[in-house]
């Protein structure tokens, strides 16, 4: 008999919306994949959630920023699969990852989120984006918050810390 190693756990982070940001992290706390997906309509989002989750091997956690009909399908599907699911608002990850001065306005927070997301991409060794949409950048940071909460990273790695 050949022993098989279990697949490492993965976290799926979602900035919920009809245009959703999606990020996948490995158990080592590093970003593996990120993208923006335009579902276009609520019905396509509801059916698309199943396919997105099927793409993630060893899915063990889902963190969703948002509420209502664009967030509920993600949480329902995670629960159906027996995967730990958490709904957060932007304030949760912004407070943990951005300096107070960078959270004063939504515009400033989005700008800083893009900068930090690019540093996460570089630190993780993930493919560099040609352009980085704000929903994908926010999904990256939602996921970073999630791996910190899960204890997959003890603290922010030095390259991701602000002065």
Structure write-up:
This protein is an alpha/beta fold. The chain has one domain (10-155): Ribonuclease H-like superfamily/Ribonuclease H (Nucleotidyltransferase, domain 5). Helices cover 40% and strands 21% of the residues. The chain is built from five helices and five strands. It has helices spanning 42-54, 72-80, 90-97, 106-124, 134-150, and strands spanning 10-15, 19-26, 31-38, 59-65, 84-88. It has a five-stranded mixed β-sheet, with helices on both faces. A hairpin with a 4-residue loop joins strand 2 and strand 3 (31-38). Helix 1 runs parallel beside helix 2 (72-80), helix 3 (90-97) crosses helix 5 (134-150) and helix 4 (106-124) packs across helix 5 (134-150). The relative contact order is 0.21. The mean pLDDT is 92.
């Amino acid at each position: 008999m050949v022993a098989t190693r279990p697949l490492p756990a993965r976290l799926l982070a979602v900035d919920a919306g009809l245009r959703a940001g999606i990020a996948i992290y490995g158990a080592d706390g590093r970003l593996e994949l990120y993208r923006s997906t335009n579902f276009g309509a609520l019905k396509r989002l509801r059916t698309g959630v199943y396919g997105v989750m099927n793409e993630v091997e060893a899915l063990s956690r889902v963190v969703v920023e948002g509420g209502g009909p664009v967030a509920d399908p993600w949480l329902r599907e995670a629960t159906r699969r027996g995967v730990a699911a958490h709904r957060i608002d932007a304030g949760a990850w912004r407070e943990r990852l951005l300096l107070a001065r960078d959270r004063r306005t939504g515009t400033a927070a989005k700008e800083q989120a893009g900068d930090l997301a690019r540093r996460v991409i570089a630190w993780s060794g993930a493919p560099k984006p040609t352009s980085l949409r704000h929903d994908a950048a926010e999904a990256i940071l939602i996921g970073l918050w999630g791996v910190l909460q899960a204890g997959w990273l003890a603290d922010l790695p030095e390259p991701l810390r602000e002065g």
